Amino acid sequence: MKPPVESDPWAALRRFTPARIALGRAGGSLPTQALLEFSLAHAQARDAVQVTLDVPGVLRQLAAAGYPSLVVESAARDREQYLRRPDAGRRLSEASLAQLAALAPPVPSRLAILIGDGLSAAAAERHAVPLLNALRLRLAHWLWAPVVLARQARVALGDHVGALLRAEAVVVLIGERPGLSAPDSLGIYLTYAPRLGRTDAERNCISNVRPAGLSYEQAAQRLALLLGAARRLGASGVALKDESDPPWNPLPEAAAR
Length: 257
Description:
alpha/beta
C-alpha cells in the first residue's frame, strides 16, 4: 500500500534552505503539515505589516547601549494612511520637521542613522540595536548624530532627516516587506549627501539582516566598506559598487594551473 504522503527526491536539500522545496504531496495536493505551515507563515507576514513600532522598547534598548536618540514621525497620520499613501511616509510631519530644524547642528555631522518601522516593526525592534552595536567599532571614526527613531517611515524619510541634520551620509535601518520565510527581515539603505528628491538609484541596499539571514557582523562590515567607498567617491547608488565580497571564481583549481 502506498503511503499517504509521497516524498520528494529533493528532500535532502531542504536542510540547506528555508525555501519551500521538496514538500512532497498527498494525491494532487500538499501534505497537511506543509499546508498548515504555509498558512501560518502567510498570517505572520500579514500581521507584521500591521503591527506598530514599540517606541518605548526601542528607546530603552538604545539608552542601555549608550546611544543618544530622538523620536520623529512621518506625515502619515496612522498605519492605514501609511499603507495607502507611501508618499506620506517619505516626508516628516510638520511637528517633527520643526523639531529637527531646531536641532540642526552648526557643524555638519558625518553620519545620521534612522531606525524606521517600515513594513515590519518587529525587524526594527529585534535587529536594529544589535546591528548598531556591530557597527560602533567599525564606524568609530565617523561623527554620529543622535539616532533618530521614526514611526510610519519609508526609506526616503532618511533623506529628509539627513538633510536637516546636515549629514554627510544617512543610513536607514528599516523593516523590509515580510516574506513567507522571514517576517522580521531588516534592510539597510545608504545615501551619500542626503537631500529631498534623491531616488532609489542613488541609494545602496543591504537586505535580509537577521540571525537566519545576513548576520549583524557581516552586514556591519559590508556597510562600513560601502560608507568608506562612498566618501572617497562622493556618491552612492548605481555609481557605488559593493566590492565587499571577493570575485567569484567557479573553477579555482583550473585558474591555479
